[in-house]
Fold:
Amino acid sequence: MRLYFLRHGIAEDLASSDFARELTKRGRRRVAGSAQVMARLGIQPRRIFSSPRLRALQTAELVAAALDMEVSLTEAVNFGFDLADLRSLTGRLGADDEVMFVGHNPDMSLLVSELTGVDASMKKGGLARVDIPGKTLDDGELVWLIAPKVFDALHGSAKGSAEADKPYGQTPASKLPQTAYPLHDLIRHRWSPVAFDREHDIEPATLLSILEAARWSASSANLQPWRFIVAPRGNREEFDKILSVLKEGNIPWAQHAAVLMLTVALRYPKPEFYHRHASHDVGLAVSQMVMQALQFDVYAHQMAGFFPDKARAVYAIPDEFEPLTAIALGYRSADLDDLDERFREREAAPRQRQALSDMVFNGAWAQAADFLGDA
Ligand SMILES: Cc1cc2nc3c(=O)[nH]c(=O)nc-3n(C[C@H](O)[C@H](O)[C@H](O)COP(=O)(O)O)c2cc1C
Structure:
């Protein structure tokens, strides 16, 4: 059994009651940084138990957000948390289980000392890992104790490294383009994966930012001809509806996306006005959406492979609109084991592009622009 003891971060001195004392701004910032380090260290407890006091709960919530978990509030971790409480919380755990407790001093320091026989002194925001090799709690081993200052340094050094600071820096080398000229990192790291994380949902706030990015796209005459039918997988009925209009080749991987979406263009803003640039503008909005998504480490895979007429029927899309594409959105999975061989190959294949000279002309049609040189 692996136990993590986290003392809450720096809290305000005064509040209406001790219970209501909140983390200070600095306390919040430091815990958020520590939480990111915990995620990078691969700390993945099965549960996070927190004292109900606000400063502990806020600390636990920041950690839970970084580890994509939920917090379990329990009176047992409140003031006076002791061996008996610990025994009752861990009684049903197996040898391989990991649990985190977020609470207060002196309890946290005392417990770590009692479990390990080491005189442990935990600062606010400090984290101790205690491994329990046997069945009883008293033969614990203090594996490490990370002081908040060390978390600060670890978080700061990660920030200093350009790649580590960007979630999308996890791009496999085969997918990073060999660019002829320097590009913005977001553009370099965008690609269309087929291996999506089957459990990590897109948080509502993240999804809203992604859609907001589309909303603020440019469009011809500001007509904003884009519409999106959006189904997070939590809404199974809606998700399956979009899945049902995808072509067969896309279903094996798109079914694991966190969100499925259809894009629809307003083709006839007025009965006599065919909007020639509607598809262009929807594409532009989608491009912004895809880039904003990547900023959150959410990847997009666009699809022409769906049945527009079926989509029109399923959603009763009016005649003046045209279903254009489907999009799968989700966090990427590095685990390719469950993918079909053909998708596994695709996930590892290098990305290909034509040369700039095949697409950038001047002087005459298909004549490579004179400023291109050898690009
Ligand atoms: C409008 C559009 C339609 C696409 N349709 C499909 C599709 O139906 N199935 C699929 O697997 N990929 C589809 N793709 C993804 C492309 O194959 C992919 O973008 C292209 O191969 C370039 O790879 P990259 O996005 O990784 O750079 C589509 C992309 C776009 C923009």
Summary: Strands lie at 2-7, 47-50, 71-73, 98-103, 127-131, 141-146, 226-232, 259-266, 298-303, 321-331. The domain at 192-350 is CATH 3.40.109.10 (NADH Oxidase). The first helix runs from residue 25 to 40. The longest strand covers residues 321-331.
